[in-house]
Automatic annotation (TrEMBL):
Record organism: Gluconobacter albidus
GO annotation terms (biological process): response to toxic substance
Signal peptide span: 1-25
Coiled-coil features, chain-numbered ranges: none
Full protein name: Entericidin
Origin: domain of life: Bacteria
GO CC terms, sorted: membrane
Family: Belongs to the EcnA/EcnB lipoprotein family.
Amino acid sequence: MSTKSIARIALSLALLSGSAVTLSACNTVRGAGQDVSSVGHNVSRGANATQGAIERHTNASPN
């Protein structure tokens, strides 16, 4: 096996490994984004529920 063949194989393996890592990172970032979005929605719902409860208990009208 020549040095060029070994270098070509090594380069191919490096590119394939890099592609695999990049694709798995995209899935991880996407999942993290979905988790953060879910938390944001829950916080927003909680804030709206709290505001509604305060308005009901104080007979205040919303701004």
